[in-house]
Amino acid sequence: MKKISIVVPTYNEEGNVEPMAEVLSNLFRSELVEYDYEILFIDNDSVDGTRVKLRKICEQNKKVKAIFNASNFGWMRSPIHGLTQASGDCVVLLCADFQEPVEMIPKFVKEWENGYKIVVGIKQSSKESKIMYFLRSCYYNMIGKFATVEQIEHFTGFGLYDKKFIEVLRDLHDPMPYIKGIVSELGFKRKELTYEQQERKSGKSKGSFWNLYDTAMLGITSYTKIFLRLATLFGFVCSGLSLIAAIVFLAMKLIYWNSFAMGMAPVLIGVFLIGAIQLFFIGLMGEYILNINTRVMDRPLVIEEERLNFEENDKEKENV
Predict the structure, then answer these.
(1) How does pLDDT run across 56-100, given as a tens digit for each residue?
(2) In the chain, is it the N or the C terminus that has fewer CB atoms within a 10 Å radius of its CB?
(3) How many Å apart are CA 171 and CA 165, to the nearest integer?
């Protein structure tokens, strides 16, 4: 009997973990009865009652497992660690807030049985803020044009991954994994299914501006070169324009010595403009260096504090 693992990352989801565990368990009792399963919650150091409820769920259902991180390791690293700890023939990554429809899982499994190693969910529409959806679309369009690897638009990580892909993830040792790029880069046979993103069932969204910014910059610094090359090209163009402007101003002053007054305005405008552009590209270069520094340190994705319902003879995968 094939085994399906469901990985559910959590952070302050006390209102969602019990309904999610119940819905997933019922799904395997009704539509996926021919499969064995495990539901793995990986908690990123929640400060509400999430862990209390996860302990209760694990006591009632041994098919439900839990990993408690020692601290909050970020919303990109914790889910990837959860994927690498699953033991199924395929693994489904699913958020705990019900924004990604559980009903998509049987569709994922069907395409997996048809031979696809990766089946991903693509947001065709969303009940979230229209402004946020528009900004996400702009970002995907921008990075899609400049990235060295194909980028999947409106893909959050929600999908099914074959165990062969999971084995590759375990061998990556990437402390800052960008799942959207990794899925495209590794080249496994992929199927894309569309869905409508729902409203959060309970609690508040953890997608703050800084979290979204981190994700966007990780994608840019991991899979684009264009911005660094633009800095070089822009410097070359500015140098040429500055030389031409200097020659023109010198000629005008020599020809119209008494009537041509340059003043300080052109100088100040030029200094502030060039200074602002330099600061922008220095900051962008800093993002690239920060990305390199994080990877060179090669720290573990997460440090685990506790595991629930894992067998003693399970292969130790902690601190991968």
Answers:
(1) 999 999 999 999 999 988 878 899 999 999 999 999 999 998 989
(2) N
(3) 10
138 alpha-carbon distance from chain centroid:
16
Q: What is the pTM of this model?
A: 0.74
**Which residue type is seen at 212?**
L
Looking at the DSSP bridge assignments, the partners of residue 192 are: 120
**Nearest to residue 81, comparing CAs of 63, 69, 98?**
69
Per-residue CA distances from 66 to 86, 99, 235, 314 (Å): 11, 21, 52, 14
CA 273/CA 281 separation, integer angstroms: 13
Residue 317: is it exposed, middle or buried by C-beta count within 10 angstroms (0-12/13-18/19+)?
Answer: middle
| Rounded Cα gap, residues 152 and 94, in angstroms | 17
* Alpha carbons 278 and 272: distance in angstroms, whole number: 10
